[in-house]
Amino acid sequence: MRKRLLVSLGIVVLAVLVLGTAGGAYAYFWDRGRADVIAPRVRVAGTDVSGLHAQAARVLVERQAVEPLRRPLRLAAGGWSTTLQRSDLVRVDLDGMVGAAVAASRSGSFDDRVLRALQGRRLDVDVPLRATVSAAAVDGVVDRVAAALARKPRSARVVPSARRLRLVPSHDGLAVRTDDLRRRLRAALLDPSVATLAVPTRPVRPKVPTPALARRYPAFLLVDREHFKVRLYRHLKLYRTYRVAVGRAGLETPAGLYHIDDRQVDPSWHVPQSAWAGSLAGQVIPPGPADPIKARWLGFYDGAGIHGTDELSSIGTAASHGCIRMAIPDVIQLFPLVPMGTPIFVG
To answer: How many degrees, rounded to 5, is the angle at CA 59 between CA 132 and CA 197?
Structure first.
């Protein structure tokens, strides 16, 4: 009886050993056959690749996560736009991501993997997107966009003519906020939901905005030789118009843009060294009856200036030796309104 019991026990032990050996071999070959199979609950760039072989996972991740990163990206500002190909700026490490998923699935020892499979345990691993944006390419795009959109500001200015003072208004320039664009562009390139990126810009203010121009010109004189008039503008608005005499033929009042550089009350006459002055050339005639320069003097160029005259019959004609003659009450009125440096345009 005892002998028979020992024989039976031996048979059971032998059977267990045989079955254990066969099961181990099966488990070993099962594990080897799943060397590139991804475990349950493993995601790559948000794509569930559970149970897939590496190649199948690669195809799925490329379609769901990589292809969207190849969509064009439009940059726009106002009426301007340009289109970028994301693939020119973004590189995705697809093989590296899938390899990481496989490596996570193969983590642990052989026994750990078998036990995990028998127990149905899940890894719950999410391999993040591995994508890099070319810094050099982004810098190139930012430079090109900045150059395309750059607009210089224009300061306000005046354009004088004999009859009117024309105002050319200022306008703002435009500049791209390059650091901001660089940051936004990098983010948008990796976000396929962004189809259009608004280019961040800033206005560039002119040195002289239109409202400031009037303050620059408290006075401006226009000399209309053809119609024998002087127009006084104050803060760019026409303030007074005066009848005057101008230089005669051969001694014309010099045309051009000048500035008042000499102001005198009851000035002396410094006779120019000119043939028409005769024996008076080079002399200084003090104020009085012999002095033709009456009341006030506003000099602007090489001996030419505005002054009063008592020869009222010459007003409205070309009669002077180059100066601009005004009636004495007019020149007295004009004088305090015209500070040193006032522009005077003779046309």
So the answer is: 40
Give CA–CA dist 51/171, Å, rounded.
64
> Which among 191, 241, 230 has a CA at the least distance from the CA of 69?
191
Q: Could you give the 3-state DSSP secondary structure of residue 188?
A: helix
Q: 95-109, 221-235, 292-306, 318-332: which has the minimum mean pLDDT? A: 95-109
The CA distance from 112 to 121, in Å, is: 11
> Which residues share a beta bridge with 132?
91
Annotated active-site residue 307? The verdict is yes
Q: What's the sign of the alpha-carbon dihedral 130, 135, 139, 140?
A: negative
User: Which among 53, 171, 270, 323 is annotated as catalytic?
Assistant: 323
Helix (H, G, I), strand (E, B) or coil at 260: coil
The structure tokens listed for 162 are 């004999």
CA distance 170 to 184: 31
Q: Which residue has the tokens 């000048």?
A: 258
- Annotated active-site residue 323? The verdict is yes
What structural domains and CATH numbers belong to the chain? 135-211 (no CATH), 217-346 (2.40.440.10)
pTM of the full structure: 0.70
Return contacts of 269-275, CB within 8 angstroms, 24+ apart: 269/293, 270/303, 272/303, 272/321, 274/321
Give the whole-angstrom CA distance, residue 75 versus residue 252.
60
Out of 53, 171, 227, 307, which one is annotated catalytic?
307
> Tens digit of pLDDT for each residue in 209-220?
999 999 999 999
Q: What is the DSSP letter of 314?
A: G
- Structure token pair of residue 150: 């750059």
Q: Which residues contact 2 (CB under 8 A, 6 or more apart)?
A: none
- pLDDT: is 24 or 258 the higher one? 258
Secondary structure of residue 236 in the 3-state scheme: coil
Is the CB of residue 188 less than 8 Å from the CB of residue 73? yes
Q: Which of 315, 214, 302 is nearest to 256 (CA)?
A: 302
